[in-house]
Amino acid sequence: MAQAILLTGQERRRRWSPDDRLEILEAAFGPGANVSEVARRFDVSTGLIYTWRRQALAVAVKNSPAFVPATVSGAAGGGGGDGGSATIVLDFANGTKVKIASSAPCDLAAAVIRALK
Q: Known Pfam families for this protein (predicted)?
């Protein structure tokens, strides 16, 4: 006679609400937290926690302004070597370097930055 096992418990694939995900992420990446311990406590894999973190960071970066630290270099009263006018120099991570004169319209400077982003 053949045997059949009937699983009536929780479904195989669990659904986590955004609030549950946020609670787990805060517990896993809070000060002094251990991701493995949090994963065991909530019965979720560490890989899934890191996936949720990566997704949350991608959304946060996409929705936030892209501010970066600025440094002032050169002489205090001098310009960028172009006749004394102030110049903004942008060094992008891909190696692109852009110089924008202070007299350039804000819309033009913003368009250039967006195009190179």
A: HTH_Tnp_1 (PF01527)
> Cα separation of 115 and 110, whole Å?
9
Q: Residue 66 carries which DSSP code?
A: -
Q: Can you give the pTM of this predicted structure?
A: 0.47
Amino acid at 90: L
Other beta carbons within 10 angstroms of residue 94's beta carbon come to 6
Other C-beta atoms within 10 Å of 24: how many?
A: 21
> For the chain, what is the radius of gyration of the CA atoms?
26
Q: Is 106 in contact with 113 (CB distance < 8 Å)?
A: no
Task: Report all structural domains of the chain as residue ranges with CATH numbers, in order of start.
Answer: 18-63 (1.10.10), 87-116 (no CATH)
CA distance 9 to 20: 20
Residue at 36: amino acid letter: S
List, run by run, the mean pLDDT of 10-residue segments along the chain (117 residues).
Answer: 70 84 93 94 94 88 66 56 67 78 85 77
Beta-carbon contacts of 54 under 8 Å, excluding residues fewer than 6 positions away, are none
